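Weekly sync, protein design subgroup
Attendees: M.S., D.O., the rotation student, P.L. (late)

Item 1: inverse folding check
M.S. brought a backbone from last month's batch and wanted to see whether the design step gives back something sensible before we order anything. D.O. pointed out we never logged the input encoding, so this time it goes straight into the notes. Structure tokens as presented (248 positions):
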């Protein structure tokens, strides 16, 4: 059986998720034994036809839309890699402001130069069909390797549908709400091992919301600890600005 051909493409992002893949070291050799990289700007100069397209970054320009649609047309399977691609992530913070103000703030007097043109950030799935996601900022490389292995073997990968709180409780962490903090664990997709609460910080929600967030439970927790829904929404701005679905 021939190995599936894989190409990695980047859009608006810091390329930190690709860096995670580069840093896999020995494990990357295992993956290369089951898939064939044919295009990956960060690691090789060759280009070729592909079966699986892995997309890092958000869609922030009209020409990005044309490019991602072409990649989608050429790929049998499309994977969104990392928070920027999966949910828009930090790139969506700008969607809370007037776009002209954002451009002036970033580019000053050069804001109207054509090559700096931009529009409101979209996640990859808002432009083309996404088959699988690798959430997180950055991604969890074990989860990435699991998804690639499944696809190479013709299996359907499954990522957690429960919340970060489940992993956090299993680690017997003291809840960050007990420290008068606001944590997005109750509504955020597990799979990171609750790394932030375990490291004594709240969850910022970088893996996006669980499929069916228990909004009422989240409201109850906020009320129990004397916080408001506005406090919760403010905490969501970093990774989940203008994010759907949510009804808080
Ligand atoms: S998800 Fe985070 S680490 Fe990955 S490309 Fe975006 S900003 Fe960088
Ligand atoms: S709210 Fe945060 S700190 Fe508390 S249990 Fe959930 S993930 Fe852990
Ligand atoms: S705990 Fe939350 S912010 Fe931290 S890695 Fe996990 S999902 Fe992301």
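Designed sequence read out in the meeting:
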């Amino acid at each position: 059986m021939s190995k599936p051909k894989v190409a990695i493409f980047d859009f608006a992002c810091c390329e930190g998720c690709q860096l995670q893949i580069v840093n896999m070291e020995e494990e990357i050799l295992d993956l290369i034994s089951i898939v064939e990289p044919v295009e990956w700007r960060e690691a090789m100069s060759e280009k070729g036809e592909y079966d699986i397209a892995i997309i890092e970054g958000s869609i922030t320009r009209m020409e990005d839309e044309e490019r991602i649609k072409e990649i989608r047309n050429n790929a049998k399977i499309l994977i969104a890699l990392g928070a920027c691609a999966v949910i828009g992530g930090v790139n969506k913070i700008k969607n809370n402001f007037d776009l002209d103000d954002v451009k002036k703030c970033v580019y000053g007097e050069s804001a109207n130069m054509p090559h700096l043109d931009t529009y409101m950030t979209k996640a990859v799935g808002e432009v083309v069909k996404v088959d699988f996601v690798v959430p997180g900022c950055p991604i969890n490389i074990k989860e990435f390797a699991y998804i690639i292995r499944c696809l190479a073997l013709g299996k359907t990968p499954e990522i957690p549908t429960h919340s970060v709180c489940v992993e956090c409780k299993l680690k017997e962490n003291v809840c960050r709400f007990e420290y008068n903090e606001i944590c997005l664990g109750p509504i955020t997709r597990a799979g990171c091992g609750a790394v932030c609460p375990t490291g004594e910080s709240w969850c910022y929600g970088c893996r996006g919301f669980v499929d069916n967030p228990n909004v009422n439970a989240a409201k109850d927790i906020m009320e129990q600890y004397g916080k408001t829904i506005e406090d919760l929404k403010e905490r969501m701005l970093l990774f989940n600005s203008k994010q759907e679905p949510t009804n808080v």
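Discussion: The chain has two domains: 5-152, 164-240. The chain is about 35% helix and 10% strand.
Action: P.L. to compare against the previous round before Friday.
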